[in-house]
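Researcher: I'm preparing a figure for a lab meeting and need a structural model of a single chain. I don't have an experimental structure, so a prediction will have to do for now. The sequence is pasted below. Please return the structure as tokens so I can convert it later.
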Amino acid sequence: MTWTSPIPPLGLGTYGRTGPEGMEAILAAIELGYRHIDTAQTYDSEANVGEAIRRSGLPRDAFFVTTKVADTKLRRADFGPSVARSLEAIGVDRVDLLLVHWPSEGGRVPLEDYVTALAEAQRNGQARLIGVSNFPIALLEQAKAILGPGVIATNQVEIHPYLQGPKLRDYARAEGLTLTAYEPLVKGRVKDDPLLAEIGAAHGVDAVAATLAFLRAEGHVAIPASANRAHLAANLAARDVALSADEVARIRGLDRGERTIDPAKAPAWDD
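Model: Understood. Here is the structure written out token by token.
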């Protein structure tokens, strides 16, 4: 497919990339060619991301950096200061993409309060693009009614071959909204899937690369996480894989609605 989203299709998740070992993993990823890096206030990896970018010697504009405002910082009094602290931790004037990490549990903080604060961060120049994470269709519709169409750049949600979210996927396509897939490799479980291995082998790659190629073929961004250099390199191989329509259809058949991230604070999912 021709990629039209302003968000690079393959990035690096940095959950767990803390301390010196986390720093080395991010530096290895940058050396291999990763330029889209995803962090969050709750990951405790913002400082490592910023330091790794500086150590790389590459210009700031070579990178696409995402961070996320925690659901504990959604109140008006907390949102803006938390964004300022994130920028300070990363060591940048603005991020490329700023997300709301989770909607307020039970609507305790009104949606209008935090999506308008999100838009204000963009107007203030603290974020080039803004979006949300873990939003079902109902909340996406409410956010659109508040902010207007086309303002939300992405919805970052769990997507992988076993949880493809067809209702959300079809809604996003109709809206021109990019979905960003977190947990895209199901903690590495896809590597043992016979169908994914077979399709990958047909393209000279492994099941993991086949999975990432599938997500891209579906129009999704994917942000796999790994601290293993070989795995990081293997993930990048997906950029050169073009699946056929038949292969995409066969992988679609793996969907079984298997969700792995479902905390008590989660909203009512669509799929």
